[in-house]
Write a structure and sequence with these properties.
The protein has one domain: Purple Acid Phosphatase, chain A, domain 2 (4-Layer Sandwich). 34% of the residues lie in helices and 22% in strands. The longest helix has 13 residues. By secondary structure, the protein is α/β, with parallel strands linked by helices. The radius of gyration is 17 Å and the shape is globular. InterPro entries: Ap4A_hydrolase, Calcineurin-like_PHP_lpxH, Metallo-depent_PP-like, Pesterase_MJ0912. This is Metallophosphoesterase family protein.
């Protein structure tokens, strides 16, 4: 089965809609939603409801740090723009939506696959997979062959051999990658709602659980409409501008 790996939606309705339509066209049969459904963007309630509908239909969803912040308040480490967005987002969500976010698990294991927002070794600590060292630590913390995580807004692929040799790979969109069975793999699909690799197109990835092939995808969407939602909400202008810059 083809599984769409979608992370860091960040209340971007336009990007999420475009990714879901693209995934359907690719024959995706299941979805794994890797956290940060809210924060930064201008349509948190709609995005939360759409994620809830997918979960009701069988999708996996895990909690992200911005989801937690929308419930409990911004973490001290969050920068001012994020803190403003967190406070605004909290007010936009109903008590029922906040309760639903609060019930999300930190991680989910299904078959030989681990789904988590930040990392496998301390999911609730929200540490980033910034390179090979953190990727190795994450892979060594689980017996699962595949780890799928978000948090980093740039697509990346890491692997660990049985002898402890690690590698990393910056993927090209649309190119199938065979995930060899003699390695562990850590997949960062990139951000759907706020890419930061210089390419403003929405990011996600597709994993084929039968062939063990992975492909990273880029999907254009109506960036100006998403930016206008941010401006209409009175959120910091920088949050609107960065969408077109992929930063």
């Amino acid at each position: 089965m083809k599984i769409a790996l979608i992370s860091d939606l960040h209340a971007n309705r336009e990007a999420f809609t475009a990714v879901l339509e693209h995934a359907q066209g690719q024959g995706v049969g299941d979805y794994a939603l890797l956290g940060d459904f809210v924060g930064y963007g201008g349509d948190p309630a709609w995005v939360v409801d759409r994620v809830r509908a997918l979960v009701d239909a069988g999708a996996i969803a895990v909690m992200g740090n911005h989801d937690q912040a929308a419930i409990k308040g911004a973490a001290p480490t969050m920068h001012e723009e994020a803190r403003e967005a967190v406070a605004w987002t909290h007010a936009q969500l109903s008590a029922e939506q906040r309760d639903w976010l609060a019930q999300l698990p930190m991680s989910v294991i299904r078959d030989d696959r681990l789904y988590v927002h930040a990392n496998a070794y301390a999911p609730s600590g929200w540490e980033y997979i910034q390179g090979r060292m953190e990727a190795m630590r994450s892979l060594q913390a689980t017996e699962c062959r595949y780890t799928f995580c978000g948090h980093m807004h740039e697509p990346m692929l890491y692997h660990l051999s049985g002898t402890g040799k690690a590698g990393e790979f910056t993927p090209a969109p649309g190119t199938p990658i065979p995930l060899l069975p003699n390695r562990q793999w850590l997949v960062v699909p990139g951000s759907c709602g706020q890419p930061r690799d210089g390419n403003p197109a929405a990011c996600y990835a597709i994993f084929d659980s039968v062939s063990s092939e992975l492909s990273f995808q880029r999907v254009p969407y109506d960036i100006e409409a998403a930016a206008q939602r941010i401006r209409a909400a009175g959120l910091p202008e920088r949050l609107a501008q960065r969408l077109s810059q992929g930063q």
